[in-house]
Specification:
- The chain has one domain: MFS general substrate transporter like domains (Growth Hormone, Chain: A), CATH 1.20.1250.
- It is built from 11 helices and 2 strands; from the N terminus they run αααααααααββαα.
- A hairpin with a 2-residue loop joins strand 1 and strand 2.
- Helix 3 packs antiparallel against helix 10, helix 5 packs parallel to helix 8 and helix 7 packs antiparallel against helix 8.
Length: 252
């Protein structure tokens, strides 16, 4: 409640300030706004992959679907997921260079959606869970690498730090909402086994379905991002510099 009140007071102050800490007018531009909305959904979907997978792997075998791994074993299973996010960063740059950051974001979000849909049905073995988690991580790496480029291509040079900071914050908000949503689903959809309330398999399927929906919706929203005037990873044609400056001034 206090945070919401502070946020409500902060917004009009930023609009009235001639030199705001975060220029919200810039953030309301269509490319920035669409990227930020997508970022919230991507943050939500990303965190669901990490948190739900750990819990699923550690579920006792008495549930009928659990694999009863220890925390250490579950962590080892998730190593390929973490490595995938590191290794695929250059791939994201290559896709952006060939196409654009917009296409990269759409492709990453779509891959995340595909990975989550597969997770709804394929969870019988640890290997299947690990492969599906890697697919989601691959999409995450590709999508996350594109968002800063989209932001920087849509704001003046003086606003890049603040705009990217806001984008990162919104991703974190998405992750926080994801954590709360997962906890809520796992707390509600339970079955009593051995005197303990444990999440049902359907609880995890609901989580993956929600994450898939977030990813797919994010991909559709990303299609509304205007086509860039130049490739974000290529040198800007000097002839476009003045045109870009004029566009920024018109949108202020």
């Amino acid at each position: 409640g206090i945070s919401a009140a502070i946020f409500a007071l902060w917004i009009p102050l930023e609009f009235r300030n001639p030199r705001p800490l975060v220029d919200l007018r810039v953030s309301m531009r269509r490319p920035v706004l669409m990227t930020n909305v997508t970022s919230i959904l991507m943050g939500f979907a990303m965190y669901a992959n990490m948190l739900a997978t750990f819990i699923l792997l550690e579920m006792p075998s008495t549930t009928g679907y659990g694999h009863e791994l220890t925390s250490l074993q579950a962590g080892l299973v998730m190593i390929p997921t973490s490595l995938t996010m590191v290794v695929l960063a250059p791939v994201s740059a290559r896709i952006t260079r060939i196409f654009s950051a917009k296409i990269t974001l759409i492709a990453g979000a779509g891959l995340m959606g595909f990975g989550y849909v597969s997770r709804i049905f394929f969870h019988d073995t640890v290997l299947l869970i690990a492969i599906a988690a890697v697919i989601v991580a691959a999409g995450t790496a590709i999508a996350f690498a594109a968002m800063p480029l989209l932001i920087m291509g849509a704001v003046p040079d003086t606003e890049t730090a603040a705009a990217n900071g806001l984008n990162t914050l919104l991703r974190s908000i998405g992750s926080s909402v994801s954590s709360a949503a997962i906890a809520g689903v796992l707390a509600v959809m339970v079955v009593e086994i051995g005197g303990k309330n444990l999440p049902t398999l359907q609880a995890f399927q609901v989580i993956f379905a929600i994450a898939a929906a977030a990813s797919i919706i994010g991909a559709f929203i990303a299609t509304a991002i205007p086509k860039p005037l130049h490739n974000e990873l290529e040198p800007i044609d000097p002839g476009l510099v003045e045109k870009l400056k004029e566009l920024h001034e018109e949108n202020r």
